[in-house]
Amino acid sequence: MTATNDNATVDAASAKTAWRPIHASVVSKRTVNPIRRIVDNLNVVPNAAKPVISLALGDPTVFGNLSTHRTSIEAMEEAMQKPQTHGYAPSIGFEVARAAIAAHHSTPEAPLTSGDVVIASGCSGALDLCITALANEGDEILVPQPGFSLYETLATSKGIGCQYYRLRPEQHWEADLEHMATLITPRTRAIVINNPSNPCGSVYTRAHLLDLLAFCERHQLPIIADEIYCDLVFSGHTFHPMATLTTSVPILAVGGLAKKYLVPGWRLGWILIHDRHQRLQEIRTALNSLSQLIIGANTVVQMALPKILADTPPSFHADTIRLLEKHAELSATCLSGIPGLTVVVPQGAMYMMVGIKPEAFADIPNDLVFTERLMAEESVFCLPGQCFGYPNYFRIVYTAPEDKLREAYDRIRAFVERHRSKC
Ligand SMILES: Cc1ncc(COP(=O)(O)O)c(C=O)c1O
C-alpha cells in the first residue's frame, strides 16, 4: 500500500518536472531506406474501381503461387523437436549448419570448410557484417547503380560513404569499369558486386566477372559478392560464383535461403570467406566479434539447414526457374511492344528494369510521375527506378501469377496509350 502511494507521488512529481529532450541517436537518423524515402513521398492512391496489382515486392511468396518445398517444412518440424534448438547457438552459427553450407558451396576451384562460414540473420545481416567489418566511418565502398538500396542504407547508417559505379543497360547491365576506376580513392575499402542482380535481372558472363576480378586485383580491393540469387538463371546463361574465378582476390560471398528456397521470412543468410592468401585474417576475427552483437541467427532454421540443403530435390529449383523464366519472357514480350518503354530482357533472378522515354509522353516527365499515375489510374504498382538510384526506369517483379501479370501489362499498355505524346 505504502509502495503504491510512493509511486503515485513520484509519478506526480515527475509529470510536473520538465525533462531534458530524449533525442534519437545519430546512427538512427542516418539510417534511411531510399525506397521508403521515395515511396512515402509518392502519392500512391489506387483507382478504387480496379483491384490493385503490386509488382513491387521482392518477396516471391506474396501471391501464394510460389512456395517452399515440403522438405523445408519437414526439416523445420524436425528441428523444433531437437532440444538444442531451444537454446543459443554459437554466434557465428551451429557447426553442423556451417559445415552443411560449406559442403553445399565448396568447389575444387574455391574450397570451403565450416571455418570459412559465418551464419547471419538473412543475407541482409550478412551484408551488414561484411560492410561493418571492412569499413570505418569516413571510408567508402563501391556499389552498383542501379542497385539494391540496402547497401546504401547499411553503409550510410555507419557513416561509410557509397560511391556508385554505373551499370550499362545497353550492355546487359555490365559494370562500367572505366567509370568504376574514377571512383577509387584512398578511402575505398571494398566493392559490392551483385550477380544475378536486383533490380536488373542480369547474369554476368565469365568474361565480365574476370574483368571485375582483374580490376579488384589491380586496386587491391576485396569483393563483397552478393550472390543471394545464385543459380536463379535462365536458359543460355550460367551462374559463376565469383570465388571460383580467382585464387588471389579475397571475396566475402553472401547468400541465404530467402530466394532460392522461397522462405525470405525465415531470415537465414551466410557469409562464405574465400581467402587463399590469408589477407582476411583480421576480417575473420571482425566478423566473429560482430556476429556477437545479436548473439547469432535463429537456431531452428540453422538446425533445419543441413536437411534443406541436402534433401530439397533439384526438381524444386528447376520448377522455380522454369516459372520465373516463363514470366520473364512474358513480361519482356508484353512490355517491349509498348511504344515509349524500353526493356532489357532479364537473364535471371526475378526482376526486370523497364526504361521510360519521357519525350514519348505528353505529361509524364519522369519515373516518379509514371509510377504514381499508373497507380492512380490503373492500380498497378511498380517501384520507380529512383529507388535504385536510376531515374526514368521502373522495376518489375514478375513473380505474380500469369493472369495477374497479363492484366497488369494490359493496364500499363492502356495507360501509356492515354499519355503518349500525339505529335
Ligand atoms: C540483392 C539482394 N541482396 C540481399 C537481399 C536480402 O536478402 P534477405 O532477405 O536474406 O535478407 C535481397 C533481398 O531482396 C536482395 O535483393
UniProtKB/TrEMBL annotation:
This protein's assembly is summarised as: Homodimer.
User: Where N6-(pyridoxal phosphate)lysine occurs along the chain?
Assistant: 259
**Family membership noted in the UniProt record:** Belongs to the class-I pyridoxal-phosphate-dependent aminotransferase family.
Its cofactor is: pyridoxal 5'-phosphate
Per the record's keyword annotation, is Transferase included, yes or no? yes
UniProt GO MF annotations = L-tyrosine-2-oxoglutarate transaminase activity; pyridoxal phosphate binding
From what organism does this protein derive? Syncephalis pseudoplumigaleata
Q: What class of enzyme is it?
A: transferase
Q: Name the chain's protein.
A: Tyrosine aminotransferase
Ranges of residues in domain Aminotransferase class I/classII large: 51-412
Pathway(s) per entry: Amino-acid degradation; L-phenylalanine degradation; acetoacetate and fumarate from L-phenylalanine: step 2/6
> InterPro entries, per this entry?
Aminotransferase_I/II_large, NHTrfase_class1_PyrdxlP-BS, PyrdxlP-dep_Trfase, PyrdxlP-dep_Trfase_major, PyrdxlP-dep_Trfase_small, TyrNic_aminoTrfase, Tyrosine_aminoTrfase
Which UniProt keywords are given for this protein, alphabetically ordered? Answer: Aminotransferase, Phenylalanine catabolism, Pyridoxal phosphate, Transferase, Tyrosine catabolism
* GO annotation, biological process: L-phenylalanine catabolic process; L-tyrosine catabolic process
User: What Gene3D superfamilies would the database entry show?
Assistant: Aspartate Aminotransferase, domain 1, Type I PLP-dependent aspartate aminotransferase-like (Major domain)
Q: What is its EC number?
A: 2.6.1.5
Q: Which reaction does it catalyse?
A: L-tyrosine + 2-oxoglutarate = 3-(4-hydroxyphenyl)pyruvate + L-glutamate
Q: Tell me yes or no: is Transferase among this UniProt entry's keywords.
A: yes
